[in-house]
Amino acid sequence: MEDEVDRLAAGWRRALPDVDVSPLEVLSRVARLARHLERQRSVVFARHDLETWTFDVLSALRRSDPPHHLSPGQLLAQTLVTSGTMTNRIDHLETRRLVRRRPDPDDARSVRVQLTTAGRRRVDAALRDLVARENAILGTLDTTQRATLAGLLRQVVAPFDE
After folding, report:
1. Residue 65 sits in which domain range?
2. Edge-to-edge, what's the strand order for the sheet holding 99-104?
3. Which residues, 6+ apart, have CB-to-CB distance to 88 below 8 Å?
4. Do 66 and 1 belong to one domain?
5. Total structural domains in the chain?
6. Claim to verify: residue 58 and residue 85 sit in the same structural domain
7. pLDDT tens digits, one per residue of 34-63
8. 20 to 30 A from 85, CA-CA: which of 26, 93, 108, 142?
């Protein structure tokens, strides 16, 4: 089976035979997969009236322990955006009644962002749909192959997360 990356690498080997283009054979496929995944995720999230960023915030809250609330700083750390961006996102989600701000029980000067029942239902349904779609994408791989691929990708990505 030949794919677009095989053709791309072959073209570079002809054009620059002295350059080792083997990294392209891995990372160009990762980049192409990322673009395909982003499109698929956008379709799934749109079915649930969400965008990628709204899913990111709601899922960070959903993964937290009950009562599913985090400080804006904790949300910043999990979603890697600026504080101004996070404030706008929380405002937007609060307007949609998917989250609410509550006083921080440990610090009266701070707030906690809490997932509402509607937000929980929305993110749970979106995740179920997303996992089904991504399971189909990985359908050609068996359990062992998936674990191997996950381990190899973890090795490559881990230094960036540190």
Report:
1. 49-162
2. 69-70, 107-115, 99-104
3. none
4. no
5. 2
6. yes
7. 999 999 999 999 999 999 999 999 999 999
8. 108
